[in-house]
Amino acid sequence: MLFFHTTFLLLAGLLGTSVSAAPTNNTYLSIAHKVANSMNDHYLDRTSGVYENQWWNSANDLTALADLAIIDPSFEATAQPIIHTAFEQAPLSQGIATFENAWYDDEGWWALLWISMYDLTKDAIYLNEAESLFKDMAASWPTPCGGGIWWDRAQTYIASIANELFLSVAAHLANRTPNRDDKASYTNWAMKEVDWFDHANLINEFGDVIDGIDLNGCTRNHTDVFTYNQGVILGGLVELSKATGDASLLPKAQAIADAAIRNLTNTDGILLEKGTKDQGAAFAQFKGIFIRNLQQLHSVAPKPSYANFIRHNADSIINNAMNHEDYLIAPNWQGPFRDPNMGAQGAGLDALVSAASLSNKRDEVPVDTNSAGRVNQNPLARIRDLT
Ligand SMILES: *[C@@H]1O[C@H](CO)[C@@H](O)[C@H](O)[C@H]1NC(C)=O
Ligand SMILES: *[C@@H]1O[C@H](CO)[C@@H](O)[C@H](O)[C@H]1NC(C)=O
Ligand SMILES: *[C@@H]1O[C@H](CO)[C@@H](O)[C@H](O)[C@H]1NC(C)=O
User: Fold this and answer.
1) Domain boundaries in the chain?
2) Where is the signal peptide (predicted)?
3) I need a surface site. Which of 148, 196, 324, 347 has the fewest CB within 10 A?
4) Contact 315/23 with Cβ under 8 angstroms?
5) Whose Cα sits closest to atom 7 in ligand 2?
6) Looking at ligand 1, which atom is closest to the CA of residue 216?
7) Which residues line ligand 1 (CB under 6 A)?
């Protein structure tokens, strides 16, 4: 704690700001460092780069580390070797030869990590790995439902998440590949996925993204609504709008983001995972994925409500869901601090990194103080607390 206060006062002093009740960007950044270090101290296997033996969740925790290093170069020397160890050792630790496994969504999470690692290092080995994972995902197109990719190699389910990841990886690659033909091909895949997603009717009239479709009749079936399904598509549409110059993709993303902020929050504007009571690492990860992608949307199509939402949720994590002795984070962002795990830790880190990066953006919009967090005024949209 002493170190934290000293650092904070020093930064505040250097910037000539005064210490206020609401955390500043430097506060978020300083806490993000502590949360990241705590994540590595408590959950990371340093020989494999995997957290608590969790596969796709580890890709997300590592992405949060990469994102922190991208906004703060002083963290690069910590993040890079850990992520590179995962690059070399993670599959072997699971008894598989490569990052290709039986689930296409898992491949998508790892591909997005290698893209973040490429952004951080500009080393083509990571971009190549993302491209080869994308190729494997693309080989699963089409399903019998008019397009789309399968959730799994065994072809048991068509999930929104695998398709959102396919869109996001394609669009990210389109903006990074040095080859013009490859750019056209990735862009084309991303546009095909967006069309298919509409055609498959995976978004309902309230803007909720449905979890997946039933093979019998290709209709909506698994009606659960999860925060990560509301999130990954945002980053995909942002990257596709950059690749094509098609700005009409951004209001489409905003409608999906607004639906989550309206519908998947408690009355205090804190993000909730309504589709499950499970507070384990897997589901705890989802909310961070939403916030990380919301921040990407905000960086190109800013709205005061997005900046407020990100800060308000980060503040709630700090005040209600974080243990201030060892910086562990609980799954429920509204608190209390209980049952921390590696997924909740990575999700909390996503929120803190997103809050810390807001104020660094030149396109930052003024904070609308009356509505800070109070985004859920519709009584119909109020939801039962999960606990
Ligand atoms: C999905 O469809 C299957 C097969 O038609 C059915 O057995 C199952 O109950 C459905 N699940 C949901 C959540 O609707
Ligand atoms: C904090 O925000 C200020 C003002 O937007 C910006 O100049 C500064 O770079 C930010 N600092 C950090 C460490 O985020
Ligand atoms: C979203 O809001 C609408 C309208 O209030 C409601 O009918 C729907 O069930 C909500 N969805 C979720 C996932 O809560």
Assistant:
1) 140-264
2) 1-21
3) 324
4) yes
5) 360
6) 5
7) 214, 216, 221-222
